[in-house]
Here is the input.
Amino acid sequence: MKHWIARGAAVLATLGLLSGCAEHEVPTLHVYTWADYIKPEVVARFEKEHTCHIVIDTFDSNESMYAKLKAGASGYDVVTPSSYQVAIMAQQGMLLDLDHAKLPNLVHVDREYLAVAIDSGMVHSVPYMLTNSGIAYLKSKVKDPQPTWAMFERKDLKGRMTMLNDMRETIGAALKFLGYSLNTTDSLQLEQAKVVVIRWKHQLAKFENEQYKSGLASGEFLLSHGYSGDFLQARAENPDITFLAPREGLSISCDDLVILKDSKQAALAYQFVDFLHTPEVAAENSQFINYLCPNSDSYASLPPEFLNDPAVQLAPEVRAKCEVIRDLGADNAKYTRVWDLIKSAP
Here is the structure.
C-alpha cells in the first residue's frame, strides 16, 4: 500500500511540476562537446542553481562538428572546439564576440597559457581544457618502449596499435617525427609526412578517436596515439597503461568554450561558461575529466600527483619542441588533400 501511495504522490508531484513548467517554462541550454567532457554532477549543480535544463550532444572530431554546424545544425548554444577550429569559426562569423563584463571568472584564467593561446585576448573563446597528444601503451605487454613516434614502425605490435582519426594530429605526428613544424605549409614536407603515415597505417588496427581508450584498457590495443586526458581516464581502469611523450615533440592543444552567434540562450550560455571557470568547479571538472583546466586559482585544489603527472606536465626538453595546432587558412586544403590520400591508400 505504501508503495502505491508513494507512487501516487510522485505522479501528483510530477503533474504539479509540469503545470508549473507550463506557466514558467524552464530554459534549455544545448551544449555540443566531446564525449565525457563535463562532470555530470557539475551539470546537475548548474541546472539546480539556474533552474534550467542542459542537453549535451557529442562529436568525435573538430571536422565533424564543424561540418554539422555548417550543414545547418541549429539550436546549439555552447560548443567546445579546439583553438585552431575556433579561429576558423570566428573568421566565418559563427561565434559571438564575448562581453567580458558577463564573465567575471575570467580573472582566474591562467595568464601563462594565454601568452601562447591563439585567442589570447579571449575575444571569441574562453580556454576550457588543456591536453597534449602523445602515446600510451601497456607496460606489461610492450617490450623496450621508447619515447618516439617511431613506435608506430614496430612490426611486433602490428594490428594492435591505433592513431587518431584526425588529420592535423596524425599528419602533425609524422611532421614532428621528420623534424618539421606541425603547422608547415610546405608541400614537399607534407608529401614526406604522407609517406610516413601510410607506412604507419600498415601497422595499425585502425584510425580511432573514441574507442581507443577503452580498447587500451581492455587489452584489445597495446599502444595508441591519443589525448593525455583520455589515457589518464583509461588508466583508472587499467593501471598498466603508461604514457610516453615523443622526444621529437607533440601537439599541445586547448579546447575552448564558445557561444554560437545564433544561440537562443545567450544569457544562460554566458552563465554556464562563467560557472565552469569558478575555481572549485574547474578543479572538480579537471579531476573528473583528467585534463587540466587553465584556471590558476584552481591548481591549489588539485592533488599533487595529478599536477605532476608526466601526462599533464611535460618535461621541459619535450615541451620546448611542442607546438599548438593553428588554423592555416587556405593552406588547410593541403592537409585535407594529404589526409584523403592517406585514408584511401591500400
In short: The mean pLDDT is 91. Residues 217 and 238 are 5 Å apart (CA to CA). The radius of gyration is 22 Å.
